[in-house]
Amino acid sequence: MATDPIPQFPAGFLWGVSTSAHQIEGAADKREPSVWDAFTAEPGRVKDGSTAAVACDHYHRYAEDVALLAGLGVGAYRFSISWPRVNAPKGLDFYDRLVDELCAADVRPVPTLFHWDLPVTLDWLERDTAARFAEYVSVVAERLGDRVGKWITLNEPAEHTLLGHALGTHAPGRQLLFDALPVAHHQLLAHGLAVRALRAAGATDIGIANSHGPTWPASKEQPDLEAADFYDLLLNRLFADPLLLGQYPEGIGELMPGDVEADLKVIAEPLDFYGVNYYAPTRVGAPQGAEIEFGGVTMPAELPFSVQQIEGVPVTDFGWPVVPEGLTELLTTFRDRYGDRLPPIVITENGCSYEGIDDQERIAYLDGHIRALHRAVEAGVDVRGYFVWSLLDNFEWAEGYARRFGLVHMDYETLVRTPKRSYGWLRDMLRAQR
Ligand code: GBH
Question: Does the keyword Hydrolase apply (predicted)?
């Protein structure tokens, strides 16, 4: 374990932690249902059969959680706003209270407006959902905009499309494979309309949180290179190109619904920052003609690529490889690919799942990734912030409560929060950065 101090980041660098509404709030009786409520009610969808009806009960215990943030000494807290809660009577009051509590603790609120919990009455296959999203965003911005400066529109439209609509391991559980592409387009359109709605309400610091990672070809053989290139297109370029360049990668625009050219003008509204959620690189080779189980996901045989284990590196409890230098590689690749079209970057999520309160592995993971981030800064990438996933152990989607990503341990019987060793490590690191 490295013990040298972490190098100093630029002045004003924003340190934070992230969570999302469905994963921590509970109080399901005080909101409308989301697609995740419907999905978890279906037997076999969530591994331990659990639901997020109570989760961390953050809805009732938010003051305790804000005190944990203050004790950690972070400058910012990224949480998400539940659209189904805003649709319920007094739902927005909760976020009003949370934002006030954060401001009083001198922690900047950074809300994400959509983190996968779509109202169950809506569907991303419908174009109209994008317009409905912008209406909801206006309502939220009018109410919180006097205290919220920094906004994130969507969390990981790539994963929501892939896991929720192409492979079906997340809500709403569809297995459309490439017929899921309109779901990506409609989310991107929703993002662009939301940027306009936020600016109309006076917001000046707006971004998105996209899931990205380097794709490593399994070999230098042509079939592996082609498969890896295609995977890189799906995970990285399909979402970054329209946002940053105003165009889809070659061959994709034709597959999208509606007046794509006109929509791209909305989608490419300039951003004030570009959020990146980084977990690991992916090793990809030619298809192997068989179903693959990987990182908690089943990939059908008909996909034109195969995801493979990266050898020779540690893995987390979830089986995800630990590759800090992948973060440096990702950021320098993005800088080279997008040049001056790339706004300042914020790492909006980075973290790992491990058991236990004496979590030395999490410390090693964070230490390695923060150093890798610093190397990207030294290489000239304009990075302005870093957020750890996650403050608390929480409802890890289809894995239920089995995976623990928190700096703070949750006892789901008693709802007692216990800071892990990594919480103390991060607190000390942040003190040394001031
Ligand atoms: C995020 O998704 C979500 O935003 C958040 O809600 C969630 O709790 C958190 O991450 C942890 O899962 O190829 O085996 O290395 C992350 C989506 C999909 C990222 C799979 C890493 C690669 C696994 N992830 N992925 S592997």
Answer: yes
311 is catalytic: no
Q: Looking at the domain assignment, is residue 312 inside a domain?
A: yes
The residues near 393 (Cβ < 8 Å, ≥ 6 apart) are: 56, 401, 404, 405, 406, 408, 409, 410
Say how many residues make up the chain. 434
> Strand 14-18 vs strand 76-80: parallel, antiparallel, or unpaired?
parallel
Give the pocket of ligand 1 (CB within 6 Å).
Answer: 20, 155-156, 159, 211, 277, 279-280, 282, 294-295, 319-321, 349, 389, 396, 405
Q: Name the residue range of residue 363's domain.
A: 14-433
- Among protein residues, the one with the nearest Cα to ligand 1's atom 7 is 396
Q: Quick check: 266 and 192 in contact, CB under 8 A? A: yes
- Averages of pLDDT over each 10 residues, the chain, 434 residues: 84 98 98 98 96 98 99 98 98 98 98 99 98 99 98 98 97 97 98 98 98 98 98 98 98 97 98 99 96 88 95 96 98 98 98 98 98 98 98 98 98 98 98 94
131's tokens: 């317009």
Report which ligand 1 atom has the smallest distance to the Cα of 394. Answer: 8
pLDDT of residue 394: 99
Residue 76 resides in a domain: yes
SS3 129: helix
Pairing status of strand 408-410 against strand 417-419? antiparallel
- Is 164 in a helix, a strand, or coil? helix
3-state SS assignment for residue 42: coil
Give the total number of structural domains in the chain.
1
Cis omega (within 30 of 0) for bond into 172: yes
State ipTM.
0.97
Q: Is residue 9 part of a domain?
A: no
Tell me whether residue 312 is exposed, middle or buried, using C-beta atoms within 10 angstroms of its C-beta: 0 to 12, 13 to 18, 19 or more. exposed
d(C-alpha 164, C-alpha 396), whole Å: 14
Q: Say how many C-beta atoms besides its own lie within 10 A of residue 202's C-beta.
A: 10
Residue 340 tokens read as: 């001056």
Q: Which residues are within 8 A (CB) of 128 and not within 5 positions of it... i.e. 6 or more apart? A: none
CATH classification at residue 392: 3.20.20.80
Smallest CA-to-CA distance from 84 within 16, 171, 5, 3 is with 171
| 2 lies in some domain | no
